[in-house]
Amino acid sequence: MNGAYRGRGFGRGRFQSWKRGRGGGSFSGKWREREHRLNLNKATGKHPEKTPQSLLLQSTLDQFIPYKGWKFYFSEVYSDSSPFLEKIQTFENFFTKRIDLYDKDEIERKGSILVDFKELTEDDEVAKLIPNVANELRDTPEKTLACMGLAIHQVNIYFYENLQLLGRNGESAEECPIPACRGKSFTALRSSPLTVTTDWQSIKIQELMSDDQREAGRIPRTIECELVHDLVDSCVPGDTVTITGVVKVSNAEEGSRNKNDKCMFLLYVEANSVSNSKGQNTKTSEDGYKPGTLMEFSLKDLYAIQEIQSEENLFKLIVNSLCPVIFGHELVKAGLALALFGGSQKYADDKNRIPIRGDPHILVVGDPGLGKSQMLQAACSVAPRGVYVCGNTTTTSGLTVTLSKDSSSGDFALEAGALVLGDQGICGIDEFDKMGNQHQALLEAMEQQSISLAKAGMVCSLPARTSIIAAANPVGGHYNKAKTVSENLKMGSALLSRFDLVFILLDTPNEDHDHLLSEHVIAIRAGKQRAVSSATVTRMNSQDSNTSILEVVSDKPLSERLKVVPGEEIDPIPHQLLRKYIGYARQYVYPRLSTDAAQILQDFYLELRKQSQRLNSSPITTRQLESLIRLTEVCLC
Question: Recorded E.C. number(s) (predicted)?
Answer without folding.
Answer: 3.6.4.12
